[in-house]
């Protein structure tokens, strides 16, 4: 069954600025115009949440840490519903791999939220043993997609 999406409005607060991106999900989307800016916004927000959570843990403010880590996991879960099945300007097979990976991480995030395991959520999108948030899977994917254009 094909689900028809109308307008999805994505709002991300980045630093003190609010950016608004409207995506008409009824048609194939132009990769450069719509999809890359969306992925970059989500990637930047993910890193921001991670760094704020890390800072909260060092304070220590456990309540703030947990809230930020849960928000980070929900961001990953929400990403899958924002992306169309097809986009213009990128190979269908490559885009299919992107969507499969996003689905995989969204499932991991869902499991982590259901279990309440903040340690799993804290390491979401990081390879085992990796601590550098700049080297997370989403950031690497965005960089790879950027290089295709």
Task: Write a structural description.
The strands form two sheets. Strands 1-2 form a two-stranded antiparallel sheet. It has a two-stranded parallel ribbon with strand order 3-4. The model is unreliable at 1-28 (pLDDT under 50). It has a single domain (7-148), classed as Up-down Bundle (Four Helix Bundle (Hemerythrin (Met), subunit A)). Helices cover 60% and strands 13% of the residues. The longest helix is centred in the N-terminal third of the chain and has 28 residues, at 31-58. The chain is of the alpha+beta class and 149 residues long. The chain has five helices and four strands.
Which tags fit this structure?
149 residues; Four Helix Bundle (Hemerythrin (Met), subunit A); two-stranded parallel sheet; 60% helix
* Main pleated sheet: 2 strands, antiparallel
Number of helices: 5
Share of residues in helices: 55-70%
* CATH fold call: Four Helix Bundle (Hemerythrin (Met), subunit A)
Secondary-structure map:
Elements: E1 7-14, E2 17-24, E3 29-30, H1 31-58, H2 62-82, E4 87-88, H3 92-115, H4 118-122, H5 137-148
Parallel strand pairs: 3-4
Antiparallel strand pairs: 1-2
């Amino acid at each position: 069954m094909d689900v028809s999406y109308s307008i999805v409005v994505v709002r991300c607060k980045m630093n003190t600025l609010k950016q608004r991106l409207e995506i008409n999900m009824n048609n194939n989307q132009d990769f450069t115009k719509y999809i890359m800016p969306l992925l970059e916004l989500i990637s930047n927000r993910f890193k921001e949440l991670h760094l704020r959570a890390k800072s909260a843990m060092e304070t220590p403010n456990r309540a703030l840490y947990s809230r930020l880590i849960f928000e980070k996991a929900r961001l990953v879960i929400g990403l899958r519903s924002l992306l169309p099945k097809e986009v213009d300007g990128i190979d269908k097979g490559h885009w299919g791999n992107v969507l499969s990976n996003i689905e995989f991480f969204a499932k991991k995030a869902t499991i982590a939220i259901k279990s309440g395991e903040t340690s799993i959520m804290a390491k979401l999108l990081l390879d085992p043993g990796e601590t550098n948030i700049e080297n997370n899977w989403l950031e690497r994917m965005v960089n790879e997609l950027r290089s295709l254009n």
